[in-house]
């Protein structure tokens, strides 16, 4: 087995050489995770805003449920999606099992509760601050939700970032519904697990390095956007 120093050297060599397999895996990982994050925000942000603004019977139960779903076990989600997409399942006729689409569905289910719960807290704080102003303007609930989403857009970037981080690091659900098929459904996390089990530490570390760089890069981008917005607001 290679020692750690040799594995790290080989990992950087793979990253810098533009290895085709490596960048193919990275590209699929980003496509799947970014799509899942966008869909989760599409569903989760309005749901979070509704829970922040609306007052209805059973709201407390809904909040507990949304918060509890943040801890959904990935393998359970993967199993449920698998049962629905398998040939004997209700959606088996779509032929989506072991495709990137199935992986996107699993990731979206996992991170939508995270987006909804975090955005609900952010928007509820904003709503408490603006509630009197909204009443004076006689805004409808939908108008209030739109105003809160727009005013909190930069803070909500952090919520989306949390969802993306959860998606791109996921392995349990995606390996169940995607199958970790080479050149088709193999993403960074499943490839790291596979290559580590095979003893190919160089490729596993290379993927790990790329994963960390992506995480740092996305965090840096979000922070720069937020700082730029704050500077413009106080300019």
TrEMBL record:
Pfam families documented for this protein: BPD_transp_1
Protein topology in the membrane: Multi-pass membrane protein
Domain ABC transmembrane type-1, first and last residues per copy: 26-222
Keywords tagged on the record: Membrane, Transmembrane, Transmembrane helix, Transport
Gene3D superfamilies, sorted: MetI-like
Ranges that cross the membrane: 30-53, 60-85, 97-118, 154-181, 201-222
Gene Ontology biological-process entries: transmembrane transport
Protein name per its UniProtKB record: ABC transporter permease
Species assigned in the record: Puniceibacterium antarcticum
């Amino acid at each position: 087995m290679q020692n750690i120093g040799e594995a790290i050297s080989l990992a950087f060599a793979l990253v810098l050489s533009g290895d085709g397999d490596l960048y193919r895996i990275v590209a699929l990982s980003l496509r799947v995770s970014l799509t899942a994050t966008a869909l989760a925000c599409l569903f989760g942000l309005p749901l979070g805003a509704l829970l922040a603004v609306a007052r209805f019977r059973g709201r407390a139960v809904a909040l507990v449920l949304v918060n509890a779903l943040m801890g959904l076990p990935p393998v359970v989600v993967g199993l449920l999606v698998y049962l629905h997409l398998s040939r004997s399942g209700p959606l088996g006729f779509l032929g989506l099992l072991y495709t990137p689409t199935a992986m996107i569905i699993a990731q979206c289910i996992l991170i939508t509760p995270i987006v909804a719960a975090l955005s609900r807290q952010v928007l509820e704080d904003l709503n408490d601050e603006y509630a009197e102003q909204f009443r004076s303007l006689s805004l409808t609930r939908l108008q209030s939700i739109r105003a809160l989403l727009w005013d909190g857009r930069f803070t909500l970037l952090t919520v989306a970032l949390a969802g993306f981080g959860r998606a791109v690091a996921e392995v349990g659900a995606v390996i169940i519904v995607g199958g970790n098929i080479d050149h088709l459904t193999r993403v960074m996390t499943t490839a790291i697990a596979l290559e580590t089990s095979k003893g190919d530490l160089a490729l596993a570390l290379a993927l790990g390095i790329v994963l960390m760089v992506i995480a740092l890069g996305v965090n840096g981008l979000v922070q720069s956007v937020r700082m730029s917005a704050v500077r413009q607001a106080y300019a």
